[in-house]
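Quick look at the format.
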Amino acid sequence: MDEKFDCIVVGAGPAGSMAAKTLAKKGVEVLLLEKHPEIGVPLSCAEAISVSGLDRFVKPEPEWISTRIHEALLVSPSNDRLMIHHPHAGFVLNRKIFDKRLAQQAASLGACVKVNSCVVSLLSLNKDGFCGVKVLEEGREKEYRTKVIIGADGVESWVARWAGMDSSLRLDQIESCAQYLLGEVEVESDRMEFYLGQSVAPGGYAWVFPKSDRTANVGLAITPNRTPKKAKELLDQFVPKRFSNFRV
């Protein structure tokens, strides 16, 4: 028999888990579906967030926080440097823990959370909309019924596409990114670094976000139509210029 819920949330990233948590707190029967076997994995961001950005939605907990950021260094194309100080600028999170805890909070309030549940299509209700989702779980198809579906499955959401909305992006609307978690580097654990310029990251910037005083997320984002080079190629050029010693 198909299982029924008041609402189904597709995607257990921070947005999906917060939606499920908010609904569950109101007494809504909600199902939160995550296609990966583990929430928070694989990592798909640089893990930095402002204090105000986090405080708006959830109270920070120490186990989520890798480092607390108090200053930012901006480096121009001509190597001019600007240091910005702020006592409560932001955090570099441990997203693996952060994402899991948000989903656990939703579950503790009554949400049903399922991993390894890949939504493959929406269930149509004649011409009047959609009444659920079809899911692959351990190689088997299963259907879940609902009145409301929330697509929290990323910037080019498949849920949105299946519902008839255009979630595709043009090449000039996206950034191509690459990132390494580097070890054995020398960084200030409370300082973010940003590097600008066409030679570094055309149409974007490079970043160094410390996870400790010896590890950092180091990456860059580019506008693809600004350069023939790939983001990873530019990152491989940037890393040895910034660090004399490092381990990927």
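Next, a different chain entirely:
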Amino acid sequence: MSNNLAGALGLSQSAEDYLEAVLVLGQSGRMVRVTDLAERLTVSKPSVVAALASLEEKSLVRHEHYGGVELTAAGKSVAEEVYRRHRLLHEFLRDVLGVPDKIAAQDACRMEHVLSPETVNQLVRLVGFFRTHNADDAILLHELQKCLEKGQCSNVKVKTETGNGKANHGGRMKKLSDLKVGVRAIVKGLKGDHTIRRRLMDMGLVPGVEVKVSKVAPLGDPIDIEVKGYHLSLRKDEAQVVLVEEIE
């Protein structure tokens, strides 16, 4: 709805930026002033005043001379949609494609004004998949990240057997932190924060690999595990994001 409203009003990229800036600055709870907008958008105060006058003519903002700036109901509707697109694109570029945060933020600013509602909705679904994927989907997640980061793009092959046993596919998955000493398991996925998942994958905890708990500290932290013949010491909160299936 907001995208249609912005289109019907013929808003420019600059106008959308102003509305988004008023929304974001207003989230602090304090009055938004011309100076605040000038600093955030790196423009002159006269430019801000002129832009606000244009937006006020369209009934998108209210601005009293030498006073604060606030969004009207229509202005807030447009601003929230622009902000949603911006945040979504930033997360997609950073968390899914692995683009460095600063570059992702800059590119999101450029992209947010040109996407159709249909494309935005599909990106919402894609980002949602990577946020809430189940353990079986994590293998696909890892393969996609490897393809994007290293150019190693190939068909996904999931091992169903390892060592002298088979993964108990009919069993219930559990957290690595819940395994008892001596138990072997297959990593099925990683949940939680993107940064933590990436670091654990870099340590070798990728979907399909076999792990074994070799030692647990008296208070349950840290946890010593074996992966590919070497030992890793994980904090309990790290082990809790790794989902595994025990090997029979």
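Strands lie at 61-63, 69-71, 161-162, 165-166, 174-175, 184-190, 210-216, 223-227, 230-234, 242-246.

See the schema section for token definitions.
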